[in-house]
Amino acid sequence: MSTVNRTARLSTRLLLAGALALGLAPTAQAAPPGIPGTSTALSELAGLAVAAEGTSSGYSRELFPHWATVSGACNTRETVLKRDGVNVVTDSACAATSGTWASPYDGASWSAASDVDIDHVVPLAEAWRSGARTWTTARRQSFANDLSGPQLIAVTDNVNQSKGDKDPAQWKPPLSSYWCTYAKMWTRVKHTWGLTVDSAEKSALQTMLGRC
């Protein structure tokens, strides 16, 4: 990202922060469905199979068809943008033309959908390495577009890019106050989809849940 773009985005963030402080721009932190309570998350974590992380050999994002059509002209990304934002207005193609998004990973707020990514809480490549490589393409598509659980969330784009395909032993949200919720989300997704955890990942999740 250029220095000019970084400066512009910082200015936008500061302006939004000031507006929020004055109550001029209503916002709400993204909250996907299906986030379990602490005791349930701990129980689900204890029940996950522990295995060494598998290989990335053969992995491709195309093996997880994502941003599938949900209804009409709206796909999964656009549906999450509308769900996680405030006062989101869309055009006839279902693209968000205005709204406000608060990213729980870093606490930033944005007024342009282009500044927001839809994060796969358990990244597609991580899922591949922990069991999804044996799935059918149809099951991988369901995983990549799962709106019924806490697998998809709107967050700041460059924060999502810094996460990449890392698990919680390698990456955690910049806001430590969100670690508890993030660990609950990650654990629920792996539990729901029958994915494994490696020992370092499980230890990191236990530590994060210990902050709840």
Automatic annotation (TrEMBL):
Residues 1-30 form the signal peptide. InterPro entries: GmrSD_C (IPR011089). The keyword ATP-binding does not apply. Keywords: Signal. Residues 113-206 form the GmrSD restriction endonucleases C-terminal domain. This is GmrSD restriction endonucleases C-terminal domain-containing protein. It comes from Actinosynnema mirum (strain ATCC 29888 / DSM 43827 / JCM 3225 / NBRC 14064 / NCIMB 13271 / NRRL B-12336 / IMRU 3971 / 101).
